[in-house]
Write a structure and sequence with these properties.
Elements: E1 3-8, H1 20-23, H2 28-38, E2 43-48, H3 52-62, E3 68-72, H4 81-89, E4 94-98, E5 120-123, H5 128-135
The structure holds 1,3,4-trihydroxy-5-OXO-cyclohexanecarboxylic acid.
Length: about 140
Amino acid sequence: MKKILVLNGPNLNLLGVREKSIYGEQSFEDYFKSLKDRFASIDLTYFQSNSEGAIIDKLHQVGFDFDGIVLNAGAYTHTSVAIADAIAGITTPVVEVHISNVHQRESFRHHSYLSKNCKGVILGFGLDSYRLGIESFI
Ligand code: DQA
């Protein structure tokens, strides 16, 4: 059974509450249940943290063992050399995802420190970006 981690960074615990016009009405917990049903043949796990260090620790923890990581690092995408280095340092491939099309938004969201070290990038499809990220591993 393939092992895939969905890893969410800061403020993504507020999905369904936060800036609904950009991020939608559904909580991630609800959406993740639908992913679990859809991908019943995959060992799919979910982790969210608002802190950079915890995200890095999680990448280290699963990054030599899992088959894929679907990562939405939230705002750390645009700031974190440390998360970029963690992705480079592990062997599990990482797909970067974003709910919104960051290229239609403020210019500070146009640059990602992470993309260079990721297998690919999926953005702008709403929560469906996560499904597409998982499908890229199967
Ligand atoms: C985001 C885009 C980021 O710019 C933002 O800071 C987020 C969410 C997205 O999924 O669209 O927190 O990663």
